[in-house]
Amino acid sequence: MILTVTPNPSVDRTLEIDTYVRGAVIRIHNAMAHAGGKGVNVSRALRNHGVQTVAVLPVGGAEGAQLTALLGEHGIAAVTVPVAAVTRCNITTAEADGTTTQLNVPGASLSEAEVAALLRAVESQLRHHPKWLVAGGSLPQGTPTDFYVRLSVLARRYGVPIAVDTSGEPLAVTARAGAANLLKPNHHELAELLDRELTTLGDVVDATREVLSWGNDAALVTLGSYGALLVEPDRFWWAGGPPIVPRSTVGAGDSTLAGFLFDDGAPEERLRRAVSWGSAAVALPGTTIPGPADINDEGVVVVPEPDLSLPITDLPAKLGSEAARSRP
Question: Which of 12, 165, 203, 254 is catalytic?
Fold first, then answer.
């Protein structure tokens, strides 16, 4: 079983349109609603592939009831913590050319008592010794920025590894505390964390290893359309897939993380699976999460320790072609 916690979940509504034009009346071709939030999305991806998962999250108001119902439709076991605030609702517009625009509500505040109740709910599930604890997303207003560090303390008490996917101040606090067995930033979040530009592969690897030196074990760094990196203290791998016409990038990183955690195995094979799951998510509309029929890892290449001088933007063309030439 893999346990996820989403402190700031949402009902995610996606509107498929031709083109977004400010000030215009826009015809919607399709509208859909899914349970959302990083931890929730990881649970959805895992459940789609037959992995037992439990999602812990706060819920409030009519939207909270809808979120709980949506989780039930996805077949996900949920431990919900009732809170006074209404669960947020996020809107995404998905245009025909693959452009997505996200309108994200920050989320209402949780009281100190509600934060404590959420931590107790997580601990109640840690007693079952899940394979991983996955903690992700933004924090509701007023939630302590060390919330993920507190989760790490609980996880380590029960011998459960923790993967953290967040950004901004919560990422900074968590990373600097050395609280994660696995961090999953994208390269923009990593650049913001260290306040430096990351333009080459070496820039990203050096930045990631600096973060690992703070006490974190490993990092899965997503690079958008340029692939992903798995970085450990003494080795690293890059992986990328064939070009894709994106339908929506929302939730792709969550599917990538779920693919990595899906099963044990050699690091390069876990990275291959992660990239194939993330690529599949990009090809689907809205916040749709891929299932087994959507996954194709044949075009995904994994390269151990490639040339650090390569610009990030050149990685798919350069490394993908080199891998193709090296095949028998």
Answer: 254
> What is the C-alpha end-to-end distance of the chain, expressed in Å?
39
User: Which sign does the torsion angle of CA 219, 75, 50, 153 carry?
Assistant: positive
Pairwise CA distance, residues 250 & 285, whole Å: 9
As to burial, measured by CB atoms within 10 angstroms (0-12 exposed, 13-18 middle, 19+ buried), residue 62 is exposed
DSSP for 190-254, please give it. HHHHHTS---BHHHHHHHHHHHHTTT--EEEEE-GGG-EEEEETTEEEEEE------S--TTHHH
DSSP character at residue 186: B
Q: 127: how many CB neighbours lie within 10 A of its CB?
A: 9
Q: Is 254 considered catalytic here?
A: yes
Question: pLDDT digit string (tens) for 159-188?
Answer: 999 999 999 999 999 999 999 999 999 999
This prediction has a pTM of 0.92
Q: Strand 182-183 vs strand 100-103: parallel, antiparallel, or unpaired?
A: unpaired
d(CA 216, CA 60): 34
